[in-house]
């Protein structure tokens, strides 16, 4: 793997945008871009900063024959790819899968939970119906590590809850929040847009029936430290 490819992979695996990484290590975003495009090579000081941030040795960063295994997120011992894999599994086994609700945590709340033998636990709780608000969260060994808040509403008579669940079952690895960027079935179209990275993001999703918007939802969240 080439150095520029590895630098880009490490950044994404740790959940940073180029802007966030630049702020984190005190280097211009344009410099980060040049590193990842192969137009420039990090000097020793830059390699030291990246090594400390990603929790990997400089040797692993610069060696072209190293496949750059997943690094731990700094100061939290969090494996971004591991959390993402668990989160997607949890989503596909709870609300989207028409899973059984857990005991309400609040009056008239709808709650779903999921855990496996990895040490992670997932919980999704929301209030309301056609107008709703809720939160999804992940714990690692009983410590909260990630959370996402969401609020939305149905805006049209042709809304189909089964279509939304089908969309959420298709949650992609690169956008492990709600649904994919685009999903269509018959006369229904789903769109999702996300700004930011896994560590800090915000997004918006909407559903159209023919040319009429019938549903919208805002969501935001990130890593907890």
List keywords for this structure.
225 residues, 34% strand, single chain, eight-stranded antiparallel beta sheet, 7 helices, globular
Shape: globular
Number of strands: 10
Structural class: alpha+beta
Pick out the low-confidence regions: 70-76
**Radius of gyration over all CA atoms, rounded:** 20 Å
Q: Note the total helix count.
A: 7
Summed up, the domain count is: 2
Average pLDDT: 90
State the end-to-end CA separation: 31 Å
Structural overview:
The chain is of the alpha+beta class and 225 residues long. It has 2 domains: 3-72, 434 Repressor (Amino-terminal Domain) (Orthogonal Bundle); 80-223, no CATH class. 29% of the residues lie in helices and 34% in strands. It has 7 helices and 10 strands. The strands form 2 sheets. An 8-stranded antiparallel β-sheet has the order 3-4-5-6-10-9-8-7, covered by helices on one side.
Q: Briefly, what is this?
A:
This protein has seven helices and ten strands.
How would you summarize the topology of this molecule?
Layout (H helix, E strand, L loop, with lengths): L2 H11 L4 H8 L3 H9 L6 H11 L3 H5 L9 E2 L4 E2 H12 L18 E6 L4 E9 L2 E10 L2 E12 L6 H9 L12 E4 L2 E10 L2 E10 L2 E12 L2
Antiparallel strand pairs: 1-2, 3-4, 4-5, 5-6, 6-10, 7-8, 8-9, 9-10
